[in-house]
Q: What sequence folds into this?
């Protein structure tokens, strides 16, 4: 979606936009709603084009820019990329090249930086495992951020290309999922048996959490991003009242998807624990 130059974005306050390639960002949205329950939210899942994890830098950037533009046009002044792949491959370019053209007063934030900041409070020995999409792992974004903040830490990363398709095809609880959950966790722990903290570096992965817990060795902390991102956003809004005042406060969440609305609503309702109405949109 490209905004024609003469179209003005709505200026009145609006919901917080939350974007993911599909269902994964719901794991972030759930914690955002717990932390800031009176805010309005607008979730956008690009389910028709998910998974993003194995797509090129250029496509992930283009799709993410489509989504951000759409959420701005829907009235959002703040958009959270609740997607590691988009945060790794598109966030910086959008912040540096596109925001100025779209509206420099709006904000787009990602999930990688707050996750890395939390590591220092959690890891005891500095041996970090990262599980993410092929795109996130190949981008090296986590390694770079971790090396900046904690130069003594060792990061071992493994891509999990089958996990997002399992979630998007609603096979996360099925018996077939065990094979691939175990395979990637075993591979990671064999690469560095000293790992004491594993980052679930894809927002879809908490939807596999029961199985992940089954195969992660005792004593290893599993770090999922929802509550970390929610705490970080709470802090951000406290420090940025000019953004805070541009968020509407009715406690209402809307859902947009690029695939079948009914199917999305069923899955989202299960996960959010409340009835959900979704609308289909084209990007
Ligand atoms: N949930 C996303 C992430 O955090 C993207 C998964 C995908 O579409 O491959 O990386």
A:
């Amino acid at each position: 979606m490209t905004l024609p130059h003469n179209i003005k974005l709505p200026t009145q306050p609006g919901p917080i936009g939350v974007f993911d390639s599909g269902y994964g960002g719901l794991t972030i949205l759930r914690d955002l709603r717990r932390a800031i329950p009176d805010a309005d939210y607008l979730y956008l899942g690009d389910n028709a084009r998910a998974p993003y994890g194995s797509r090129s830098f250029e496509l992930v950037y283009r799709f993410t820019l489509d989504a951000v533009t759409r959420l701005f046009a829907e009235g959002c002044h703040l958009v959270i990329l609740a997607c590691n792949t988009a945060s790794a491959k598109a966030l910086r370019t959008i912040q540096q090249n596109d925001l100025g053209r779209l509206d420099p007063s709006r904000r787009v934030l990602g999930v990688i930086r707050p996750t890395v900041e939390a590591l220092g409070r959690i890891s005891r020995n500095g041996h970090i495992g990262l599980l993410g999409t092929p795109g996130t792992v190949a981008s090296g974004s986590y390694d770079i951020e971790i090396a900046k903040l904690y130069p003594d830490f060792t990061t071992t990363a493994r891509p999990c290309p089958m996990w997002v398709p399992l979630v998007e095809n609603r096979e996360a609880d099925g018996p077939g999922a065990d094979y691939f959950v175990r395979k990637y966790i075993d591979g990671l722990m064999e690469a560095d048996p000293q790992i004491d903290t594993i980052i679930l570096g894809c927002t879809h992965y908490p939807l596999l959490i029961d199985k992940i817990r089954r195969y992660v060795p005792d004593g290893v902390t599993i770090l999922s991003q929802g509550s970390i991102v929610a705490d970080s956003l709470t802090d951000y809004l406290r420090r940025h009242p000019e953004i805070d005042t541009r968020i509407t406060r009715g406690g209402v969440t809307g859902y947009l998807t690029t695939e079948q609305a009914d199917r999305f609503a069923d899955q989202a309702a299960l996960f959010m624990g409340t009835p959900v109405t979704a609308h289909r949109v084209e990007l």
